[in-house]
Amino acid sequence: MEPGNNTQISGFLLLGFSEKPEWQLLIFGLFLTMYLITVCGNMLIILTVSSDSLLHTPMYFFLCNLSFVDICFTSTTIPKMLWNIQTQSKVITYEGCITQIYFLIHFGVLDIFLLTVMAYDRFVAICHPLHYTVIMNHQLCGLMILGSWIVCILNSLLQSLMALRLSFCTNLEIPHFFCELNQMVQLACSDTFLNNVVMYFAAVLLGGGPFAGILYSYSKIVSCIHGISSAQGKYKAFSTCVSHLSAVSLFYCTVLGVYLSSAATHSSHSSAIASVMYTLVTPMLNPFLYSLRNKDIKKALKSFFVKETTILSQH
Questions:
Q1: Contact, 247 vs 286, CB < 8 A?
Q2: What angle do CA 35, 38, 43 make, to 5 degrees?
Q3: pLDDT at position 300, please?
């Protein structure tokens, strides 16, 4: 990594959480455990839903997609971090950094889109139950997923191409455990005005827009639940939203917490620690949020394990 106002650099240094050698083994063990729980938990959701025909509904179709995206989202950053700790290296190549930024933005925004689609699904199920199967047909579900992927691909591509135009000087240290776009932009020697405009415009449009859609869906859901006469009916309707509402709250609260803590402390180290919440903790907790309070998922999980145990015993 030679100094100079030139984009032809070999790479960046990811400073991570701590430079103390005695902390590295603990950090490695903690993140490896959390990563394995995330991958196994989300993979189990996908396998369970796929193997149970009763769960082949729009709600669980979107949940499978969310689980897949969560696996990809964490796999964008954590394996590289673990590899760097294992090899006692902090280097990430320039190409690797741009690639990491692309996929991190792609799967992060796709997570938001899927949560929004799932909110719309709950809105239709509660507010228009008689027309649910007609409205949430296979074609619409497929189009919503396809549309989300296309928008996210285009946004990630734009952000990555904007990052490629930047030039860098002597400071190539990123105070994070992954290549975060904002941190990379701050290191640039060239003019970053256009990058900041595109970055914040995309954040407002693709982050704030879906959030407004989620709020609107839930305002209608609350209104519909309020109109249900029986207490049992209200509880049953609300219980179908608890898991999704918990996932939305966890994701947006952690993302908001990262930026508020970063703005309040002006500490990149604090921001790196806080960002663990939405890059790893939220994807890790999502399978638990959707399985612990969901009778259908719990029943399907039991059937899945019984089936697998039977197959293994036969061999």
A1: yes
A2: 125
A3: 78
Residue of 199, 201, 202, 203 whose CA lies nearest to 188 = 199
The residues pairing with 92 across neighbouring beta strands, listed in sequence order, are 12
Q: How many C-beta atoms surround the C-beta of residue 194 within 10 A?
A: 10
Task: Read off the tokens for 243.
Answer: 């898991």
Give φ, ψ of 92 to 5 degrees.
Answer: -130, 135
Which among 269, 159, 137, 265 is positioned nearest to 203, based on CA atoms? 159
Give the Cα separation of 270 and 176 in Å (integer). 10
- Average pLDDT, integer, range 18-30: 84
Position 23 scores a pLDDT of 82
147 alpha-carbon distance from chain centroid? 17
> Among 52-56, 206-210, 310-314, which stretch is predicted with the lowest mean pLDDT?
310-314
| Burial class for 187, CB neighbours closer than 10 Å (0-12, 13-18, 19+) | middle
Q: Pull the structure tokens for residue 26.
A: 């603990």
Q: Is the pTM of this model over 0.85?
A: yes
Q: Distance between CA 226 and CA 234 in Å, rounded?
A: 7
C-alpha to C-alpha distance for 177 and 171, rounded to whole angstroms: 16
In the predicted model, is pLDDT for residue 273 greater than 80?
no
What is the average per-residue pLDDT within 238-260? Answer: 79
